[in-house]
Design a protein that fits this description.
Pfam families: Band_7 (PF01145). This is Band 7 domain-containing protein. The protein has 345 residues and is of the alpha+beta class. The chain folds into 2 domains: 171 residues, Tetrahydropterin Synthase, Chain A (2-Layer Sandwich), CATH 3.30.479; 98 residues. Helix content is 61%, strand content 20%. The protein has 7 helices and 9 strands, in the order E-E-E-E-E-E-E-E-H-H-H-H-E-H-H-H. The strands form 3 sheets. The chain has a 3-stranded antiparallel sheet, with no helix packed on it. The chain is rod-shaped and about 225 Å long. The mean pLDDT is 84.
């Protein structure tokens, strides 16, 4: 929309670069071009604003296929006004000199024209296509048919309109039909999902089995190694016991040999001691015998009185010490009697 301002009873128009302005006064074209800026009088000016930028028109319409199934077509047509003068002469692009707004609805008229033309060509191609084919290749077929049909439409160049591009966004059947058509695909997808789930479970089970087998093999190997370890420990213990027994035997033999040697030495020493003692006893006996013999020889040569005296001396030497002697009259009488009887003899 053009920007119009007031100054002292006059108007000033400033248009956008994408807006083509046509200014007539008294049937004469004074200004013609995009992005203009000029002063004018509201009472004598006839202004038209034609957009020259690319515009997109979204359209939705229903069609029927060859097998009598309703489908909804969603398309977008990009167009532009290539000849503003022709468009301004065919459609009402006049604007209010006070507000700059269109007095009519020219873009709606263009949209109706394009929609009806595109719908006509789309209906033509879908009417000869079954629903299954339309859902598979219908989008491309409808797009090509609309593009070709709009390019050949004589009303568009006559209105100054150029079609830039055509896009068919979607082609959808009725909800019930769409659900019915989705069912086999969903079933197939579900089957594929179930098969993938089963395969994944099978792979998981196989992996668990492999893991269990690995664990079992590990346990078997550990048991085998533990058995070897027990055997080795038994062998080591047996060998250690044998070595201890051998060492004990060696120590016992050594102790026995030492005991035997000590016994032999003790016996030898006892024998020697006994021999020495026997020899000493023999020598002592012989010495005593010689002394006794000498004593006897000496006493044999001495008289009886001397022997008695020696005997008394010997007896006196062996008697205990006598501090006092008490002689009773009886003993003294008997002793004196005996002494008196021995004296005269």
């Amino acid at each position: 929309m053009a920007d119009i301002t007031r100054r002292l009873g006059r108007r000033h128009l400033r248009a956008a670069p994408t807006a083509h302005i046509r200014h007539h006064r008294a049937g004469k074209l004074l200004h013609d071009g995009p992005g203009l800026s000029f002063w004018f009088r509201a009472l004598t000016a006839a202004l038209s604003e034609v957009p020259v930028d690319d515009r997109e028109l979204a359209m939705t319409f229903h069609a029927r296929t060859s097998d009598f199934q309703d489908v909804a077509v969603q398309a977008t047509v990009t167009y532009r006004i290539s000849d503003p003068a022709v468009a301004a002469s065919r459609l009402d692009f006049s604007i209010d000199p006070d507000t700059g707004a269109w007095r009519g609805t020219p873009l709606e008229q263009l949209g109706t024209l394009l929609t009806e033309s595109a719908q006509q060509h789309a209906l033509d191609v879908l009417a000869r296509t079954p629903l299954s084919a339309a859902l598979v290749d219908g989008v491309a077929a409808v797009r090509e048919r609309i593009t070709a049909g709009l390019a050949e439409e004589p009303r568009l160049p006559a209105t100054g309109i150029e079609v830039v591009a055509v896009r068919v966004v979607a082609l959808r059947p009725e909800p019930e039909v769409e659900r019915a058509l989705r069912t086999p695909a969903r079933e197939q997808i579900q089957q594929e999902a179930d098969r993938a789930t089963y395969e994944r479970r099978a792979v998981a089970v196989e992996r668990e089995r492999a893991i269990a087998e690995n664990e079992l093999a590990s346990q078997i190997e550990l048991a085998r190694r533990e058995e070897r370890l027990v055997e080795q420990r038994g062998t080591n213990a047996r060998r250690e016991a044998e070595e201890h027994a051998a060492a004990d035997a060696v120590r016992a033999e050594a102790e026995a040999a030492r005991t035997v040697r000590l016994a032999e030495a003790e016996a030898t020493r006892s024998v020697r001691l006994a021999r020495a003692e026997a020899e000493g006893a023999r020598e002592v006996g012989e010495a005593r015998a010689r002394a006794q013999a000498a004593w006897l020889r000496v006493h044999a040569e001495v008289d009886v009185a001397t022997l008695h005296a020696l005997a008394g001396t010997k007896v006196a030497e062996n008697l205990p010490r006598i501090d006092s002697v008490t002689v009773s009259p009886d003993v003294l009488t008997g002793l004196l009697a005996r002494l008196g009887g021995q004296g005269p003899a």
